[in-house]
Write a structure and sequence with these properties.
Number of domains of chain B: 1
Helix content of chain B: 10-25%
CATH superfamily of the largest domain in chain A: Cytochrome c-like domain
Oligomer: heterodimer
Strand content of chain B: over 45%
Number of helices of chain B: 7
Structural class of chain B: mainly beta
Shape of chain B: globular
CATH class of chain B: Mainly Beta
Largest sheet of chain A: none
Helix content of chain A: 40-55%
CATH class of the largest domain in chain A: Mainly Alpha
Number of domains of chain A: 3
Order of helices and strands of chain A: HHHHHHHHHHH
Order of helices and strands of chain B: HHHHEEEEEHEEEEEEHEEHEEE
Largest sheet of chain B: 16 strands, antiparallel, barrel
């Protein structure tokens, strides 16, 4: 260890600037290590998903926001819009992820792990957080016929194929009702993929959707998804 | 190569690949390395199209927030690369040319430590350490210990942190950074220009502290300083002997700025960086003259991520000027420049089937003192292409075939060293890369 006098003497000697730089570096490292050591718990800004004392709003902002946006309006259509989503629906989905009842690819790839240690209280808190966010409008397709076809399916179903109207469960503003999710402004790509999950897989069991969507064609799914993304027109 | 040898090689290769597949898949078809165990997520959440190491927007956030998302778990992973390289010209082929080998194995200590601290530390066993065959050695590889915090609300988002690392740009979150743009290089053939900017050549030689901030996922800034990884920091340069270690003079500054933008399934980054390092001519003599390297880089990355498609492109241009080269390197010119361009594009379908194409072009001033030993016209100029196809049968195993095709090597297309043509360095590289 050099004494303070020696260090002071060195500062007067330009030829020792190298050693001064080294001292600065060592101090920076000591400060850095001190910061590391002092930061064991930080519940107010934690990204820990296995700590019941982390508030749901903290988890929503520190973790969920990375994909779903801080206000539940994600930029990427890979991730569903959660802003304004029905509280009951979000609770049921998070529990379905947690107990592996929902196994669509995006569900198990992204959500099984993140939800595995959330408490019921945290899940309810997250659902409340997203329910009160304001959804932003989705992009409107320039294809007027596609939108008109989608609207027809949403409001009237496909009577020839015994497909009931979506509006009967999801609401006249597609705002959702309780366990039936809000669909308005949802990403078309996400909606189409989920319709395919209901139609072609057992990835989301326990709902009527697999029977409802069974007769839908690819064009039907594309149209109703495009309509809902741009809803309300 | 006779057809019998080709068949025999094919049989050996198939056997090696099969063994690797059986080994890794029998562990667990859903096997997840340490970070994936911590978040419980699949590789595809953090890695674009599942191809490690390129990060998705979420993966970048995971790293910037100090590897702290998720639940603390056993922070250990292993990784291995088995491969075979076949050179186009036997006179330039390595001792294991055409022979399937176990190339490298790594152990990782990786994961969340506290709410604000996480680590990504890799130690690598190189099964090949010279010209005579197998000489296994362990050594430090990438190291990044982070502290990070994040102040976020509906109006603003500020992530800031500190990183202790052992390679300039290893702390970066974009795959266009020098530490990340090249991966899985062949161990036996020529996998790039002989001469590259120093920013890519300091890994596991140096120790650095950087401080960084990301504001609103839009503006990224990082500043830091690097010194020789010796003394208390020698754990960052294990496996490198004192005489072979690059010795920096004092603290050497690094700065990085990047603009990031995401819209729909697209995201783009435009960045610049600068690194000044002064390196002693004699690693064992701190009084020896220093070469002053000044690296200035511009880079960009674009990604389109929407299942089942992944498209990504990287651009990197680094201009390096060196001075005091006569005294320190025995160069003819006291000052030289070296420009390294690299462009890469990748497409992946269903996070399983992928192809990429990389172009590299290095140019620089001629210097008979520096390059006469490798180049007949004393030039470092090298240009070529690397096409690759790869297949990811399960998320933690990748099988890839790369081909390195050189149009120009060390200054010329033909007779670059008086004997060989650039294309004599061409080689095919088949690898199996697994992690658990």
């Amino acid at each position: 260890m050099k004494s303070a006098t020696q260090i002071t003497n060195r500062t007067n000697n330009p030829s020792n600037s190298l050693e001064i730089k080294m001292k600065g570096f060592q101090i920076a490292v000591i400060v850095a290590l001190g910061v590391l050591a002092s930061a064991c718990s930080n519940v107010e800004r934690s990204r820990d998903l296995d700590n019941a004392s982390v508030a749901p709003a903290v988890t929503a902002m520190q973790v969920c926001s990375n994909c779903h946006g801080v206000d539940g309006n994600p930029k990427s259509p890979n991730f569903p819009r959660l802003a304004g989503q029905q509280e009951e629906y979000v609770i049921s989905q998070l529990k379905n992820f947690r107990n592996h009842n929902r196994s669509d690819p995006e569900g198990f790839e992204y959500m099984w792990g993140l939800s595995r240690n959330l408490t019921d209280e945290q899940i309810t808190g997250l659902a409340k957080y997203y329910a009160k966010q304001i959804p932003t409008r989705g992009e409107t397709s320039p294809d007027a016929k596609l939108l008109a076809d989608g609207r027809e399916i949403y409001e009237k179903g496909v009577p020839d194929q015994n497909v009931i109207a979506c509006v009967s469960c999801h609401g006249d503003k597609a705002q959702g009702i309780g366990a039936f999710p809000r669909l308005a402004s949802q990403h078309a790509d996400y909606l189409e993929k989920q319709l395919n999950v209901f139609q072609n897989t057992q990835g989301r069991p326990g709902t009527a959707m697999e029977f409802v969507v069974h007769p839908l064609t690819g064009a039907n799914k594309q149209a109703v998804a495009a309509y809902l993304q741009s809803f309300p027109e | 190569m006779s057809s019998t040898r080709v068949v025999r090689l094919g049989v050996k290769l198939s056997g090696a690949l099969l063994l690797c597949l059986i080994f890794f898949t029998s562990l667990n078809a859903n096997a997840l390395p340490a970070f994936a165990r911590q978040t419980g997520q699949n590789c595809v959440a953090c890695h674009a199209g599942g191809q490690f190491p390129e990060l998705t927007p979420y993966g970048r956030m995971f790293k910037l927030t100090g590897y702290t998302i998720g639940s603390r778990s056993i922070p250990l992973s292993v990784m291995g690369v088995a491969s075979v390289t076949k050179n186009s010209n036997s006179s330039l082929a390595g001792p294991k040319d055409g022979v399937p080998v176990f190339g490298t194995g790594s152990v990782f200590l990786a994961g969340k430590i506290t709410d604000n601290v996480g680590i990504f530390a890799q130690a690598t066993y190189n099964n090949y350490g010279g010209d005579s065959g197998y000489q296994g050695t362990w050594g430090s590889d990438n190291f990044d210990l982070r502290f990070a915090d994040r102040f976020i609300d509906t109006n603003s988002d500020l992530i800031f942190g500190l990183s202790l690392n052992n390679n300039p740009t290893v702390s970066d979150v974009w795959n266009s950074a020098p530490a990340w743009i090249i991966y899985a290089p062949t161990m036996f053939g020529t996998s790039g220009p002989d001469t590259s900017p120093i920013v890519g050549g300091l890994g596991a030689q140096v120790a650095g502290i950087t401080a960084y901030a990301m504001w609103n996922n839009l503006l990224y800034a990082e500043v830091g300083a690097y010194k020789t990884a010796n003394g208390a920091f020698s754990f960052l340069s294990q496996g490198t002997n004192n005489a072979g270690q690059t010795k920096l003079a004092g603290s050497n500054p690094y700065v990085r700025l990047a603009l990031n933008h995401e819209w729909g399934p697209h995201n783009i980054m435009l960045g610049v960086f600068g690194l000044n390092v002064d390196i002693h001519a004699d690693p064992l003599n701190e009084g020896s003259p220093t070469t002053k390297y000044r690296d200035r880089g511009i880079d960009a990355q674009y990604q389109y991520l929407l299942d089942p498609h992944t498209v990504s492109a990287q651009f990197s241009y680094v201009r390096e000027t060196t001075s005091n080269s006569i005294a320190s390197l025995g160069a003819t010119n006291d000052s030289n420049t070296l420009n390294a361009l690299r462009i890469k594009g990748t497409y992946i379908y269903q996070a399983k089937y992928g192809a990429s194409l990389s172009y590299f072009n290095t140019t620089g001033t001629t210097d008979s003192g520096l390059y006469s030993g490798i180049s007949a016209n004393s030039s470092p100029n090298t240009q070529g292409w690397t096409p690759e196809i790869f297949y990811t049968p399960v998320q933690n195993i990748r099988i890839g075939l790369q081909y390195y095709a050189y149009q120009k090597f060390d200054g010329a297309s033909t007779g670059y060293n008086g004997t060989n043509n650039a294309k004599d360095n061409n080689n095919a590289f088949l690898y199996v890369w697994g992690a658990y």
